[in-house]
Amino acid sequence: SVIIASQLPIAKWYDYIGDPTLADAIMDRLVANASKIELKGESMRQKLKK
User: Fold this and answer.
1) I want to staple 17 with a disulfide (CB 3.0 to 4.6 A). Which of 23, 26, 32, 49 is the partner?
2) Which among 37, 28, 32, 33 is positioned nearest to 4, based on CA atoms?
3) What is the largest CA-CA distance in the chain?
4) Cβ burial 20-38 (10 Å sphere, 16+ → b, else e)
């Protein structure tokens, strides 16, 4: 099992990696059978700071 946490959306990984062939290889292995949890909303840091 592998857990990856990223603040960069998956759609932007290609631009960040830079090499389309390498990006395809990475994405194919990581995302093909992945369970994805995407959190949305305000940062809890801002809410707790008040």
Assistant:
1) 23
2) 37
3) 46
4) eeeeeeeeeeeeeeeeeee
Is 1 among the domain residues? no
Using DSSP, how many helices (H) and how many strands (E) does the chain show? 3, 0
**Contact (CB, 8 A) for 16 and 26:** no
For 9-35, the pLDDT digits (tens) are: 888 989 999 998 999 998 888 888 888
31 within a domain of the structure (yes/no): yes
Whose CA is closest to 10, among 41, 44, 36?
A: 36
Our count of domains for the chain comes to 1
Range of the domain at 22: 10-49
